[in-house]
């Protein structure tokens, strides 16, 4: 299939993310591959990703929309997160996702578009379209971290399917497979995990489909092999391990909205002025920051107002939370 390729920025990633970070990371990977007992390296990477043929992208162009904050460590990013398909605890995805094999992988595209179909994931991972985007992920629970993603523009991917004039929303679905995703054996959520965006949100320049982080293939616990990243929305909108994309005329029913409609709205834009019914959203705990440094003031749209505020002009963001 043909994908419209966005021209990459020619700013080199090493200009902002220190090269030493990458070199350390590569050294770390090599030691891990050699079977070193260093730290918990062998559990950070799934078995299938330890082949010498595993792709890695150490020097991708860095997208200028990236945050200027220094990224969190690889350890923070891969050992503290939410992926309920592998358990509800923050350490569970790291512990329970190691056996998951995200290859082969297909994505089914359906609904209001001219070019639906079933596509192999590798149709989308074209080195020329890949770039590094460093985004802050703000979780609705009140913590945040900065992640150096490897990915490509969601808008460019979606344009390749030629959405028609009835395509007002895009729905994304995670793999449903209880045997491979043991967390789905418990009814903690409506499975499969579903998320959605309005089509103009999806076509904005910020969202990406991520296939890696820190220049390496996406670890299982972070949503392998492909996940969405929408940096101005709370983290739960950034759905992992996507197997289906559907263009719809009506607003998709999303997992968290179905589970607790008064707590999780469809929009879920980061907004310090609108509290979650059970806690404030004014501040965030920055993972990796010492407790005496205190919390960070949460920014409207997670700091991306310039790129997205116009999408909500005239809307009451308290009603459309
Ligand atoms: N996607 C799926 N399929 N299942 C999940 O449980 N958790 C969400 C989101 N995507 C989740 C998911 C939540 S609550 C957050 S905060 C982010 O993933 C965490 O992403 P991270 O691993 O990059 O920190």
Element layout with pairings:
Layout: H1 19-33, H2 41-44, H3 74-79, H4 92-96, E1 106-111, E2 117-120, E3 131-138, E4 143-153, H5 154-159, E5 169-174, E6 194-198, H6 199-202, E7 208-213, E8 216-217, E9 227-229, E10 242-248, H7 255-259, E11 283-286, E12 296-297, H8 305-308
Parallel strand pairs: 1-10, 4-11
Antiparallel strand pairs: 1-2, 3-4, 4-7, 5-6, 5-10, 7-8, 7-9, 11-12
The site of ligand MTE has 17 residues, from loops.
Small molecules bound in the structure, each named once: ligand MTE
Largest sheet: 7 strands, mixed
What is the helix fraction of residues, given as a range? 10-25%
- Full CATH superfamily name: Oxidoreductase, molybdopterin-binding domain
Q: How many domains?
A: 1
How many distinct beta strands? 12
- Count of helical segments? 8
CA distance, first residue to last residue: 36 Å
From the alpha carbons, calculate the radius of gyration and give it in angstroms.
Answer: 19 Å
CATH topology: Sulfite Oxidase, Chain A, domain 2
* CATH architecture descriptor name: Alpha-Beta Complex
Please write the CATH class name: Alpha Beta
H and E string:
HHHHEEEEHEEHEEEEHEEH
Low-confidence segments: 1-43
Taken from the alpha-carbon principal axes, the silhouette is globular
Structural class: alpha+beta
Overall pLDDT confidence: 88
Question: Could you tell me the strand content as a percent range?
Answer: 15-25%
């Amino acid at each position: 299939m043909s994908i419209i390729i966005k021209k990459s920025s020619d700013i080199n990633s090493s200009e902002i993310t220190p090269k030493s970070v990458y070199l350390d990371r590569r050294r770390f990977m090599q030691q891990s591959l050699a079977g070193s007992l260093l730290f918990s390296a062998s559990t950070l990477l799934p078995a299938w990703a330890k082949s010498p043929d595993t792709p890695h992208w150490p020097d991708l162009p860095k997208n200028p929309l990236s945050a200027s904050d220094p990224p969190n460590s690889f350890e923070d990013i891969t050992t503290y997160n939410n992926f309920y398909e592998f358990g509800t605890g923050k350490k569970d995805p790291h512990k329970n996702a190691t056996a998951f094999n995200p290859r082969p992988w297909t994505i089914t595209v359906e609904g209001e578009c001219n070019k639906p179909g079933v596509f192999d994931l590798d149709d989308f991972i074209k080195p020329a379209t890949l770039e590094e985007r460093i985004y802050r992920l703000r979780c609705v629970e009140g913590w945040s971290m900065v992640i150096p993603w490897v990915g490509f523009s969601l808008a460019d991917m979606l344009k390749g399917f030629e959405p028609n004039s009835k395509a007002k929303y895009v729905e994304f679905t995670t793999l449903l497979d209880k045997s491979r995703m043991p967390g789905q054996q418990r009814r903690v959520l409506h499975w499969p995990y579903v998320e959605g965006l309005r089509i103009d949100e999806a076509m904005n320049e910020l969202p990406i489909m991520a296939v890696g982080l820190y220049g390496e293939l996406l670890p299982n616990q972070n949503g392998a092999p492909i996940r969405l990243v929408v940096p101005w929305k709370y983290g739960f909108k950034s759905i992992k391990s996507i197997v289906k994309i559907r263009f719809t005329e009506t607003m998709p029913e999303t997992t968290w909205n179905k589970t607790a409609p008064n707590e999780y709205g469809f929009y879920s834009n980061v907004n310090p002025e609108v509290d979650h019914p059970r806690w404030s959203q004014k501040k965030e705990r920055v993972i990796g920051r010492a407790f005496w440094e205190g919390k960070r003031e949460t920014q409207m749209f997670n700091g991306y107002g310039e790129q997205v505020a116009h999408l909500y002009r005239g809307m009451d963001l308290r009603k459309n939370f």
